[in-house]
């Protein structure tokens, strides 16, 4: 407009029309450039679309690598939790010095319109083979809040047991998991879960398992070796806080579940029933729900186990059998605070309560308490502090210090420097 | 057994509502669903304009919401890859699984920018399908609106006519508004700016602005002091007109660069709800255009 006025005032009609023509032309050219840009973009997008290939349906593949440097005051081979039946599982700290942790390989994809499949294998660093951590199928097409899982999966016992070790906030498992689950419990079985159609999150589910792993032991029967029932409740408090609580009850009946007493080298075995209650709570805070700069996570679990049955002393030798009864518990609470992007600090306190253990062979006078040295009354405790740095969502370097009072009379000062990285598909992490 | 009875009792007490439950991953899509559905839909967003949509916890409340959804609308292009798949798996809701009519990925309906030619995580958190923040170009909103109206009509056949007529009315108003924004923002053509994250690529491309730098050294990696120092040098030689950050970004880096260079920093609402004016999609673009024009006054 202003250009036209200026033209009218100052220039001849011919010059003006020439100018108007050029500006019209510029406009037309601009439009054409825009059209061209659009068609180029479209053809680029088409070019990017897939051509036929066999690999098009490859599953999401991921690998987790981790390594740790450990400096331990006590020899990890002597690790034990006094007062508690040894689980014979992988519960000891990593070896002294530099070592490679388990390397995890994961594959997952939708099988078809009905199922999803997932396989996570852990390759043992010492060449002892490959462990199947999880291998399960899960339904996609059931409605009304139902999902069914079958195969091997981390059992819904408590909270952290369901999370892969690489996503834990500390290098090692809480003592309750070490004492009551033998590290981490994965069951071969079937899980049915139902999510309620309510605004507050509420689920209830059950698992029928093989029960071959601690606290179970294979009985070689046709039915289920273990049964777990669980329920979770969760929600938000405003935009900044999300919470979840869970309760589970796991029951199994181990037959000839053997353990070696590390203090006198004698093997004993238990047959009876084992019941485990787990209560868990998680609370996550982030300002306005934006966890990029600062956030805080509070997590705690309480486990209680009751075992009732027969204990056989030295089955291959003396082979004395009498009743056995124990009522034990344990808990931990941990907090992890991200104080600036990429940096977190955390603290964890662990405690196990030996409760009461009644050994028939001791009460009857057949044997002395000193014949079951590991079961002597003792309260294991541990303090753990960590700081970690996560340059991206795919890598983490962690330094952890712990003072572990799991062994009676021997304090273990532990120092870990660990890296965990993930390659390949972007995994989604559970709450 | 008690638990089971309790849960069934709870199931019965929540009677099915007549409205279509829309679970939107981001506020722009819940706002759009509300525009297209009116009182026929009840749309809730899983995230707000103050949250980084890449990093959302798959929290229980979201599973509960997804469980009752009839339609899921998300940006897609792997933006929600860290949390949406888990919600979908845990919800036990077959209506909204990928491939079913109840699952809509908005980015499939637009031409994506910044589609990487090489995929390597050393380049940061790149999205194989292209930049997922498509909602910052109103022309993309129009395309998604058409697709969403069709889906609503498919999911809720009884009200199909309503969705189509509302979509038509929205399209008309939206095109008028888009023309108005383009006219208002004509002066922004060619204006150089620095961005915090590549969150406004589509906006910049739509308005013909020029992005000359990012505060993030690589997508998804927080600003570092060395990278900011480089930007200060770069701005001394070729100053940008403004430094843009979104409602969910930490403003520190933008403010730091602004203080060192005297270039104004501008907070842009990332999406609907990110500022007082951005109450709906129209208000969002009104506000964004006004905020971009402010430093040029």
Structure description:
The complex is a heterodimer of chains A (431) and B (297). Chain A has helices at residues 2-10, 13-48, 175-180, 360-363; strands spanning 60-72, 97-100, 103-110, 115-123, 130-139, 146-154, 186-195, 201-209, 226-237, 241-252, 257-260, 267-285, 295-313, 320-340, 343-359, 381-392, 395-407, 410-424. With 431 residues, chain A is mainly beta. With 297 residues, chain B is α/β, with parallel strands linked by helices. Chain B has helices spanning 2-13, 27-37, 60-67, 84-91, 138-155, 160-184, 201-207, 225-237, 252-261, 281-293, and strands spanning 20-24, 41-45, 71-74, 103-105, 192-195, 210-214, 242-246, 265-268. Chain B has a four-stranded parallel β-sheet, with helices on one face. The radius of gyration of chain B is 21 Å and the shape is globular. Chains A and B meet through helix 2, strand 7, strand 8, strand 9 and strand 10 of A and helix 1, helix 3 and helix 4 of B.
Mean pLDDT of chain B: 92
What topology, given as strand order, has the largest sheet of chain B?
A: 2-1-3-4
Q: By helix and strand content of chain B, what is the structural category? A: alpha/beta
Gap between N and C termini of chain B:
70 Å
What separation lies between the terminal Cα atoms of chain A? 60 Å
Residue share in β-strands of chain B: 5-15%
Q: Low-confidence stretches of chain B at least 5 residues in length (pLDDT < 50)?
A: 7-16
Q: Determine the number of helices of chain B (DSSP H or I, runs of at least 4 residues).
A: 10
The number of helices of chain A is 4
Structural class of chain A: mainly beta
Q: Specify the helix fraction band of chain B.
A: 40-55%
Order of helices and strands of chain A: HHEEEEEEHEEEEEEEEEHEEE
């Amino acid at each position: 407009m202003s250009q036209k006025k200026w033209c009218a005032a100052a220039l001849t009609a011919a010059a003006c029309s020439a100018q108007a023509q050029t500006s019209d032309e510029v406009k037309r050219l601009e439009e054409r450039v825009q059209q061209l840009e659009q068609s180029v973009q479209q053809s680029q997008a088409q070019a990017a679309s897939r051509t036929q290939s066999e690999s098009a349906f490859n599953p999401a593949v991921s690998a987790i690598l981790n390594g740790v440097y450990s400096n331990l005051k006590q020899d990890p081979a002597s690790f034990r939790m006094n007062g508690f039946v040894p689980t014979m599982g992988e519960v000891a700290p990593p070896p002294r010095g530099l070592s490679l942790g388990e390397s995890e390989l994961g594959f997952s994809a939708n099988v078809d319109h009905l199922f999803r499949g997932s396989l996570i294998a852990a390759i043992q660093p010492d060449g002892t083979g490959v462990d199947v951590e999880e291998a399960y199928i899960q339904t996609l097409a059931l409605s009304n809040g139902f999902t069914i899982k079958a195969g091997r999966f981390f059992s819904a016992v408590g909270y952290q047991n369901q999370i892969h070790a690489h996503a834990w906030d500390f290098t090692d498992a809480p003592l309750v998991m070490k004492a009551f689950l033998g590290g981490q419990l994965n069951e071969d079985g079937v899980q049915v879960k139902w999510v309620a159609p309510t605004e507050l999150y509420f689920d209830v589910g059950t698992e029928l398992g093989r029960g071959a792993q601690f606290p179970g032991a294979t009985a070689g029967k046709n039915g289920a070796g273990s049964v777990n029932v669980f329920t979770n409740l969760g929600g938000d408090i405003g935009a900044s806080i999300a919470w979840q609580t869970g309760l589970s009850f796991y029951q199994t009946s181990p037959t000839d579940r053997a353990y070696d007493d590390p203090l006198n080298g004698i093997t004993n075995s238990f047959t009876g029933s084992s019941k485990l209650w787990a209560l868990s709570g998680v609370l996550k805070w982030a300002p306005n729900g934006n966890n990029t700069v600062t956030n805080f996570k509070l997590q705690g679990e309480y486990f209680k186990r009751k075992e009732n049955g027969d204990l056989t002393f030295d089955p291959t030798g003396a082979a004395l059998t009498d009743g056995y009864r124990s009522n034990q518990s344990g808990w931990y609470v941990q907090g992890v605070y991200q104080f600036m992007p990429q940096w977190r600090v955390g603290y964890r306190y662990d405690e196990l309560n030996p409760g009461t253990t009644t050994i028939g062979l001791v009460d009857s006078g057949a044997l002395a308490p000193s014949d079951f040295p590991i079961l002597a009354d003792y309260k294991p405790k541990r303090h753990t502090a960590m700081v970690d740095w996560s340059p991206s969502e795919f890598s983490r370097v962690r330094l952890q210090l712990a003072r572990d009072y799991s062994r009676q009379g021997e304090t273990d000062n532990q120092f870990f420097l660990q890296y965990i990285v993930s390659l390949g598909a972007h995994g989604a992490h559970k709450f | 057994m008690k638990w089971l009875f309790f849960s069934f009792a709870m199931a019965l007490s929540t009677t099915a509502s007549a409205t279509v439950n829309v679970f939107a991953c981001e506020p722009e899509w819940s706002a759009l669903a509300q525009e297209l559905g009116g009182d026929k839909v009840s749309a809730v967003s899983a995230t707000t304009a103050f949250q980084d949509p890449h990093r959302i916890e798959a929290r229980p409340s979201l599973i509960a919401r997804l469980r009752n959804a009839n339609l899921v609308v998300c940006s897609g292009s792997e933006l929600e890859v860290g949390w949406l798949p888990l919600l979908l798996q845990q919800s036990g809701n077959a209506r909204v699984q990928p491939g079913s009519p109840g699952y809509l990925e908005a980015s499939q309906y637009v031409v994506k920018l910044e589609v990487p030619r090489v995929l390597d995580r050393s380049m940061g958190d790149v999205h194989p399908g292209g930049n997922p923040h498509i909602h910052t170009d109103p022309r993309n909103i129009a395309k998604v609106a058409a697709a969403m109206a069709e889906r609503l009509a498919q999911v809720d056949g009884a009200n199909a006519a309503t969705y189509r007529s509302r979509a038509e009315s929205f399209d008309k108003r939206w095109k008028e508004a888009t023309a108005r924004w383009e006219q208002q923002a004509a002066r922004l053509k060619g204006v150089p700016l620095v961005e915090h994250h590549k969150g406004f690529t589509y906006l910049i491309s739509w308005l013909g602005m020029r992005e000359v730098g990012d505060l993030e050294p690589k997508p998804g990696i927080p600003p570092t002091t060395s990278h900011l120092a480089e930007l200060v040098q770069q701005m001394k030689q070729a100053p940008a007109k403004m430094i843009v950050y979104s409602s969910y970004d930490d403003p520190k880096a933008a403010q730091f660069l602004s203080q060192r260079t005297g270039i104004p920093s501008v907070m842009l609402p990332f999406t609907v709800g990110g500022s007082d004016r951005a109450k709906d999609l129209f208000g969002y673009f009104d506000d964004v255009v006004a905020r971009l024009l402010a430093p040029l006054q």
